[in-house]
Specification:
alpha/beta; 3 domains; 12 strands; D-Maltodextrin-Binding Protein, domain 2; Arc Repressor Mutant, subunit A; 5-stranded mixed β-sheet
Length: 299
């Protein structure tokens, strides 16, 4: 089919308003030009579309059938233009983030709050994942960004950007309060029950490598699925646990748990953003990425 698509747009307005003059005014054209285009469209389609009279324009049966299709197409195009315009102004759009629980509480919640205050019409979908799960979701395209903790194990086309550091501390419940009075070594920790995230998580691997560097096995007595499960178990004396410092602050102040000093330094970890460099991000996602990067530049 060789018909000019501009002819269809003109036909849409002529048919909608049943007037060549009104169509010309809307399209910032003139009636002779509109008439010429409609004559050309009829010639190319090989049928009569419009019946002209002093009262205006009416559609032939062929014109009515064509208008049913053209109207749908034009309305879809207008809706798409409106949606894109909303995306550019961040009045519409969505962001999907795969986040580890530690990353969520250490810094992501604050950034989401600030972003939502600026762009309340952007839909947010947050999936609670371990770091490996978040990266798998990113690779599959089910999330736009992953905000997780190191080590991530990310490899191309995934790229990792550190955002903010955090320190983990060792804590124990009332039954282990006396341990707060002296420094323990990693070796001496083997004498006590330990609570940690499951072996499929990067947190487990982090501590496994930390103990391995000292030539020690990492022996976990209780494995949990999420970070927020560690603290209740520690409070109830099921063992000692490593927690990001912000997670333990309130419980430490209330005397529900005790900070146990270590002779061996626990390296700081990072909350980081991981994205798929091979994918083009939407305007809304890029704006949120910019906000996350501003956080990292302040550290």
């Amino acid at each position: 089919m060789g018909a000019n698509y501009e002819y269809y747009r003109i036909f849409y307005y002529v048919a909608k308003y049943q007037s060549l003059t009104k169509a010309a005014n809307i399209l910032c054209s003139n009636q002779p030009n509109i008439t010429r285009c409609m004559n050309k469209l009829e010639q190319e389609l090989g049928c009569r579309l419009l019946l002209r009279s002093s009262q205006g324009v009416t559609l032939t049966p062929e014109g009515k059938r064509l208008y049913e299709h053209v109207a749908v197409a034009c309305e879809h195009i207008r809706a798409a233009e409106k949606e894109l315009s909303g995306s550019r102004s961040l009045e519409t759009g969505s962001i999907s983030i795969g986040a580890s629980e530690t990353a969520l509480h250490v810094m992501l919640l604050q950034k989401l709050k600030a972003f939502h205050a600026l762009y309340p019409n952007i839909r947010l979908r947050i999936s609670n994942h371990s770091t490996p799960q978040a990266l798998a979701a990113l690779k599959s395209g089910s999330v736009d960004l992953a905000v997780v903790t190191t080590p991530t194990g990310a490899s191309k086309p995934l790229s990792e950007l550190p955002l903010t550091p955090f320190q983990e501390i060792l804590v124990g419940g009332p039954g282990f309060a006396k341990l707060a009075e002296r420094k323990l070594t990693l070796k001496s920790l083997l004498e006590y029950p330990l609570i940690c995230l499951g072996r499929e998580t990067m947190t487990y691997r982090f501590y496994e490598q930390l103990f391995l560097k000292k030539g020690l096995p990492f022996q976990v007595d209780t494995e949990v699925a999420t970070t927020d499960q560690v603290l209740p178990l520690v409070k109830n004396d099921l063992g000692l646990g490593f927690l990001p410092e912000p997670f333990a602050e309130e419980a430490l102040v209330r005397g529900e748990v005790y900070r146990i000093p270590l002779a061996d330094q626990i390296p700081k970890r990072q909350v980081c953003m991981v994205k798929d460099s091979s994918r083009t991000l939407s305007i809304a996602v890029r704006e949120f990425e910019k906000m996350l990067c501003q956080q990292s530049n302040t550290k």
